[in-house]
Specification:
The chain has 238 residues and is α/β, with parallel strands linked by helices. The protein has two domains: 4-40, no CATH class; 49-236, tm_1862 like domain (pyruvate-formate lyase- activating enzyme). Helices cover 32% and strands 18% of the residues. The longest helix is centred in the last third of the chain and has 14 residues, at 200-213. It is globular, with a radius of gyration of 21 Å. Its cofactor is [4Fe-4S] cluster. Pfam families: Radical_SAM. One of its GO terms (cellular component) is cytosol.
């Protein structure tokens, strides 16, 4: 590659394509100079996602994309696709790499997101995975998805959800949840800067409720150094 983009690339690539001189320096572009040293300003760039149009994937490419990411309820029955409803995350957990590139939480316009979904469905996609760092409760988005012939998967924080919103999530077509719980103890979650206001029992009840509405629910745990193996196994059996 001739250059590298530091941070999010969409509008930087447009600026690069419009350059009339290779000597023009953009704030978020770096390259190796003749001495093999890194040159450029290397300012981390964040895109205004509200300005991004709906993506349009070639139908031939989608037909070859048979993978359904993080889906375990049944075998794929058609192509899979990916959609981004939001970018970034309002939390700053110690283990997450999002601070380096996709930090601030930003939602894309609802009509743009649903337009992307409609185009994917029209081209035969049967399952969509939302690549959002954190899929947040959004009544209008879920109601829009409920009207469309597609199922989907998400990654989320279960403590942001309520039983009624989990019900709507299931009605909207969600078949896969990857929930970042990280630790079964309040101390463990605190050490990871989760800023979680719910108790382990409250989180567990939400996970159990979600499993009644969504075929596959996974609660991710990290080695928080304070979760005993016997306690983890006991918790999993719930």
């Amino acid at each position: 590659a001739d250059v590298g983009v530091v941070g999010e690339c969409e509008d930087v690539l447009v600026e690069l394509a419009g350059l009339t001189s290779r000597d023009t320096q953009l704030a978020s572009v770096v390259w190796l100079n003749e001495a093999g040293e890194l040159a450029g300003r290397a300012e981390k760039h964040a895109t205004d996602v509200k300005t991004l149009p709906a993506l349009r994937w070639p139908a031939a490419l989608l037909r070859r994309h048979t993978h359904h990411h993080h889906r375990f309820d049944e075998r794929p029955d058609g192509p899979g696709g990916e959609v981004e409803a939001s970018r970034g995350c309002p939390y700053h957990c110690t283990f997450c790499a999002k601070d380096n590139f996709r930090d601030a939480f930003r939602k894309r316009p609802l009509d743009v997101v649903l337009s992307e979904v409609d185009d994917l469905v029209a081209k035969g996609v049967r399952y969509v995975y939302f690549i959002d760092e954190i899929f947040v409760p959004d009544v209008k988005l879920l109601e829009g998805l409920r009207e469309r012939a597609v199922v989907f998967g998400v990654q989320m924080r279960i403590d942001n959800w309520t039983p009624p919103m989990l019900d709507l999530l299931g009605e909207a077509g969600c078949v896969s949840i990857e929930a970042g719980m990280e630790s079964i103890t309040e101390v463990g979650r605190s050490l990871l800067a989760k800023r979680c206001k719910l108790s382990t029992d409250e989180l567990t009840e939400l996970l159990i409720h979600a499993k009644k509405r969504v075929p596959f629910v996974q609660a991710n745990l990290l080695d928080a150094t304070c979760d005993k193996k016997v306690d983890v196994e006991r918790w999993r059996k719930r």
